[in-house]
Amino acid sequence: MALTKTTKKKNAPTANSDIKKLKLLITVVPRGKTEFFIDLLSGFEINFQTSVTAQGTAQSETLRLLGLDDSDKSVIFSIVREDKSAEALQTLGEKFEKVRGAKGIAFTTPLSSVIGVAVYRFFSNHKTGGIGQ
Amino acid sequence: MKFEHEAIFCIVNSGYSEVVMDEAKKLGARGGTVINARGTASKDAEAFFGVTVQPEKEIVMILVPAKKKDDILTALYENVGLSSAGQGIAFSLPVDGVVGLTKEQSENA
After folding, report:
1. What is the ipTM of this complex?
2. Which of A57, A93, A109 lies nearest to residue B31, judging by beta carbons?
3. Secondary structure of residue A78 in the 3-state scheme
4. Which CATH number fits the domain that encloses residue B21?
């Protein structure tokens, strides 16, 4: 029992605090639609996003030779709270289907850890008390 | 927890992403995304192990069904691994949600 008390840090989240897990959301989209998807994702309480330019590997040699494949891509890395990830993925899926020239792919992978209360609060968009308060 | 898909990341010397994709496609992967990157390595480690790390790298990201992951990772290790000119390092991350795959891609990707 004493060990629990002595090892408990001042700012460490308590067991009953409302900590939600985080996921890394990776979205691969045509380069011209990068801003569109970054704006879209920011509506899911995503505070941290970074995009990098990339190339898609041509899926069809015929299309590539005809110059019809759009291989210029952007990869958007976003940190999303677990309870928002399904909603974000569903919306992305709808946009991939409905928006012209916005076909892409998105997937999430769980984050196992993050260091720093302020960093966690930033990633999870946790604005009110409870964590580190 | 069991995942249906895995994301394979393979970091290779610049110019070897096509080899990575060729190996992955042989085992059923459908497509991938190549990101240009810059590698760093400890100079001491380079001297100790007698290798030179070329800084220009490519990161190849491939989404595959979990059941094909092991075969693809093995092929990458054997054909574009550290002992090859591509000096590749491959690893996979679990994928717990995915959108944008066609039904065919989802089953065969």
Report:
1. 0.85
2. A57
3. strand
4. 3.30.70.120
Q: Answer whether residue B29 is part of any domain.
A: yes
CA atoms within 13 A on the CB side of B31: 20
Q: Give just the sign of the alpha carbon dihedral B52, B53, B58, B60.
A: positive
Interchain pair A89, B99: CB under 8 A: yes
Closest partner CB to B31 (pick from A56, A89, A96): A56
Confidence of residue A131 (pLDDT cuts 50, 70, 90): low
Whole-prediction pTM = 0.84
What is the tally of structural domains in chain B? 1
Phi-psi region of A78 (alpha: psi -120 to 50; beta: other; left: phi over 0): beta
Q: Write the pLDDT tens digit of every residue in B20-65.
A: 999 999 999 988 999 999 888 788 888 888 877 778 999 999 999 9
Q: How many CB atoms lie within 10 A of CB A60?
A: 11
Whether B98 is in a domain gets the answer: no
Which chain A residues are within 8 Å of B31, Cβ to Cβ? 56-57, 59
A20 token code pair: 């939600």
- The 10s digit of each residue's pLDDT in A18-58 is 789 999 999 999 999 999 999 999 999 999 999 999 999 86
Q: Tell me whether residue B80 is in a domain.
A: yes
Nearest to B96 among A26, A53, A110 (CB): A110
Which CATH code, of 3.30.70.120, 3.50.30.30, 2.170.270.10, 1.10.10.60, is assigned to A21-56+66-124?
3.30.70.120
A63 touches chain B (CB under 8 A): no
Residue B28 lies in domain: 5-88+104-108
